[in-house]
Amino acid sequence: MHAMVYRGPYRIRVEEKDVPPIEHPNDAIVRVTKAAICGSDLHLYHGMVPDTRVGMTFGHEFIGVVEQVGSSVQGLQRGDRVMVPFNVFCGSCFFCARKLYGNCHNVNPNATAAGGIYGYSHTSGGYDGGQAEFVRVPFADVGPTKIPEWMDEEDALMLTDACPTGYFGAELGDIKEGDVVVVFGAGPVGLFAAKSAWLMGAGRVIVVDHLEYRLEKARIFAHAETINFAEVDDIVVHLKKLTDHLGADVAIDAVGAEADGAFFQHVTAAKMKLQGGSPVALNWAIDSVRKAGVVSVVGVYGPLFSAVKFGDVLNKGLTIRANQCPVKRHWPRLFEHVKNGVLKPSDIITHRIPLEHIAEGYHIFSAKLDNCIKPIIVPGSN
């Protein structure tokens, strides 16, 4: 089969790999029909995530058709169209019993720090991902769900990570009716977080970024106010002025490890790898939220030290909530929103790229070329 293969930072290519076999009776083999490149994949691409091994296939957002099932699988059969959450989870451990699927304790040797994620380095279990023609899906009776007949396939693809993660970011904010919510980052997760904040009762939603085409999308897709942080002297002071000098009620960090905006932080984190991520957006969130406010973090950081302003968290009495999104927990409500026309997740997709050209897709997405917001990958379309 053809598959994207990692060869080192900024170096990927399509190679021939063996079709993955059934390794356990609970496995399924899925023929991938659509996959996506996530902003989190760029952290791998840029060499930000430890233990990303040469030869690995990325891709934690994918949908497809069941090609083969193990002898214990009861809920799926060959030919079923399925959407697969980015979490690999067992469904029965302490955390899965509490629907914390991103924290599953049985799918990753490093489970004290992280659960399992498709295509996301050996810190997340070392599972090959879906930027390929076929992918092995463990616990096939637990994770995948048949795509409803009424659901568009590209909407289903966005529901495997980006949309639920943005929704989860808003949920973690514990938004009360009328709250002022500021979202840092107008990438796919930030756009969905801003859109979801309205669904949870926000009275005002502000999105911060420095790329004008992404801010335009935030205004159109999420109906949010926008601020280009490159055009104001001090984004924190600016936000305070917009919020009666108190600060926002809720701040959502949808940026993570490679935030721009502070030269020293960016260089020590993104370039020199001395931190687990540039905490610029997180520190802005801490500074711009009001005292006793909530900071929600769904942007990805590495496990290394980051220079976070924790003294300010203590002194302001902030609540910080963060986690990997338990995707399947949110599907029932999100399915309702999509079916009723409240959400159209595929509206954020800007590029559709054949698998054979995935290296160019990564370059376009990484360099923010051609107004790229969300690229998806289509195997066999060349």
For the biggest sheet, the summary is: 7 strands, mixed
Order of helices and strands: EEEHEEEEEEHHEHEHEHEHHEHEHEHE
CATH architecture of the largest domain, please? Alpha-Beta Complex
Structural class: alpha/beta
E-strand count = 17
Parts with pLDDT < 50 across at least 5 consecutive residues: 261-269, 272-276
| Shape by Cα distribution | globular
Give the averaged pLDDT, no decimals: 92
Number of continuous helical runs: 11
Terminal CA distance? 14 Å
Radius of gyration: 20 Å
Strand share of the residues? 15-25%
In the CATH scheme, what's the topology name of the largest domain? Quinone Oxidoreductase, Chain A, domain 1
Q: Structurally, how many domains make up the residues? A: 2
CATH class of the largest domain: Alpha Beta
For the record, what is the CATH homologous superfamily label of the largest domain?
Answer: Medium-chain alcohol dehydrogenases, catalytic domain
Task: State the helical fraction.
Answer: 25-40%
